[in-house]
Amino acid sequence: LRSAAPPRLGMEVMAPAIINALNGSSVKLSCTFNSCYKVENKQFSLNWTYQSCSNCSEELFLQFRTKIMNKQLDRFGNRVEFTGNPAKYDVSFTLKNVQLEDEGTYNCYVLNPPDRHRGHGKISLKVLTEEPPKHDSTVAVIVGASVGGFLAVVILVLMVVKCVRRKKQQRLNTDDQKTEEEGKTDGEGNPDEGTK
């Protein structure tokens, strides 16, 4: 397990160099590969190992030999779930309920004969505490400002509508008063005409 595949030989393995995960959350450690050959379960092999430090020895915790086998390390218990699909060149796994002690290096080793060289991907997992990353707070500020702006516009529109309605109502009231006054003068004038 110690020797990685020589560069630019055999298959190519793609894995993010660094993954940040929030303490207590689930995180997918993504590892995919390119191969000129179709994956045959009888020949294909996969190893996932964990290193707590760069000089520490690698601990095997997940393996594929004709089928997926979890090596139940005390460190992970049953928190490791294989979520990849070798037939689709995906050998990712999900780590549930991430703990601060899970921080370290995760190595993904893939061999797909007739490829002669084993592919190797390396992921550095950083575990964050409850503090949200800075870019999330800017998104929150933008969303907050947008919502605040929208509410301000709605309130402004409602105020304008209310003012327009009030003005209309005032006009109607003054019109009604005028007609009432006109009606009174007519009413007073008509009986006089009738007596004549």
From TrEMBL:
<keyword id="KW-0393">Immunoglobulin domain</keyword>
<feature type="domain" description="Ig-like">
    <location>
        <begin position="7"/>
        <end position="124"/>
    </location>
</feature>
<dbReference type="InterPro" id="IPR013106">
    <property type="entry name" value="Ig_V-set"/>
</dbReference>
<dbReference type="InterPro" id="IPR007110">
    <property type="entry name" value="Ig-like_dom"/>
</dbReference>
<dbReference type="GO" id="GO:0005886">
    <property type="term" value="C:plasma membrane"/>
</dbReference>
<keyword id="KW-0812">Transmembrane</keyword>
<keyword id="KW-0732">Signal</keyword>
<feature type="region of interest" description="Disordered">
    <location>
        <begin position="169"/>
        <end position="196"/>
    </location>
</feature>
<dbReference type="InterPro" id="IPR000920">
    <property type="entry name" value="Myelin_P0-rel"/>
</dbReference>
<keyword id="KW-0472">Membrane</keyword>
<keyword id="KW-1015">Disulfide bond</keyword>
<keyword id="KW-0325">Glycoprotein</keyword>
<protein>
    <submittedName>
        <fullName>SCN2B protein</fullName>
    </submittedName>
</protein>
<dbReference type="InterPro" id="IPR003599">
    <property type="entry name" value="Ig_sub"/>
</dbReference>
<dbReference type="InterPro" id="IPR036179">
    <property type="entry name" value="Ig-like_dom_sf"/>
</dbReference>
<keyword id="KW-1133">Transmembrane helix</keyword>
<feature type="transmembrane region" description="Helical">
    <location>
        <begin position="139"/>
        <end position="161"/>
    </location>
</feature>
<dbReference type="Pfam" id="PF07686">
    <property type="entry name" value="V-set"/>
</dbReference>
<feature type="compositionally biased region" description="Basic and acidic residues">
    <location>
        <begin position="173"/>
        <end position="196"/>
    </location>
</feature>
<dbReference type="InterPro" id="IPR013783">
    <property type="entry name" value="Ig-like_fold"/>
</dbReference>
